[in-house]
Amino acid sequence: MADHSLEVLKLSVLFDNHFFNGAPTQVHFIQNSTMVGTWVDEQGAANLSVGLDRIQFMSSDQLAFLIAHEYGHLVLKHPQKTQEIQQQYGIVSTFDEFMLSFDSKRDYSKLMRDMELQADLFGAKLMLGLGRDPVSGASFLLGETKSIQHPEGTLRLAKIKAGESNLIAEDFSDTFSDLAMQLSDAEVLAALVPSDTLPVDSNDSTVKAVVESWPVAVDVGDYAGDTLYGFEVSVLLTVAVLACALPRWWRRTRVGQ
Ligand SMILES: [Zn+2]
């Protein structure tokens, strides 16, 4: 578990250096959670949350692909695009997705799923840049359930395989190819990341727009894998924070009297 956290931080430092001039992405490790998501907070800072239960049994390649995919969302500005799309379709909760008309749901779903495929391809490129196997990394997608936001795992893996052979056919040698060389530096830097970033309090009220929560691999109907949106997360967290804080505040007030 600890090794997995360090591996995530290492990749995060590496990708922050490569894509964001070293501006740090805030990494949140969440206990007892399988959710993984990215968002941009009110200060414009990138955030990545990683449910520890999700990564616990992942291989090193799978972990690298997962983080590379999430960085795909951040680099391609998907949190911002998600907000735009959801505004356009009047969606503030998962419930609103169900209420969309058939045509709207199809169009909305296509926009959301396209972002997933883009992040997959981005992740596959990064994997090649790291000298790793994208297909082995993405293998866990087969266990994912399809949702309004996420295409079928088999389709995603097929696209990654096709993308990989295209990239190799193009004589893959773009800016990503020096990533593997920077890995050892990233490891040193990751060890310096302040320890208070892991694990952080999951009652993080700065959560704005989570691009995705990876569907939990439970088969409960067509769209059941779809989990919470940033809005709902914010509401739930606010309620949780209040539920924790109010009794203490109440006691303190009464003691003061
Ligand atoms: Zn994604």
Secondary structure blueprint with pairings:
Layout: H1 2-19, E1 26-30, E2 36-40, E3 46-51, H2 52-55, H3 60-75, H4 78-88, H5 94-99, H6 102-129, H7 134-137, H8 153-169, H9 179-192, H10 230-256
Parallel strand pairs: 1-3
Antiparallel strand pairs: 2-3
What is the arithmetic mean of pLDDT? Answer: 77
Low-confidence stretches: 195-209, 214-233
Quickly count the domains.
1
Overall shape: it is: globular
Number of strands: 3
Q: Main β-sheet, in a few words?
A: 3 strands, mixed
Our count of helices gives: 10
Radius of gyration: 19 Å
Helix content: 55-70%
Please state how the strands of the largest beta sheet are arranged side by side.
1-3-2
Question: What compounds are bound to the protein?
Answer: zinc ion
End-to-end gap: 47 Å
- Structure class: mainly alpha
Please report which band the strand proportion falls in: under 5%, 5-15%, 15-25%, 25-35%, 35-45% or over 45%.
5-15%
Helix and strand sequence: HEEEHHHHHHHHH
Task: Explain the overall architecture.
- The protein is mainly alpha-helical.
- It has one domain (2-256).
- The chain has ten helices and three strands.
- The chain has a three-stranded mixed sheet.
- A hairpin with a 5-residue loop joins strand 2 and strand 3 (46-51).
- The longest helix is centred in the middle third of the chain and has 28 residues, at 102-129.
- Residues 195-209 and 214-233 have low confidence and may be disordered.
- Bound molecules: zinc ion.
Write a concise keyword list for the protein shown above.
globular, 257 residues, mainly alpha, binds zinc ion
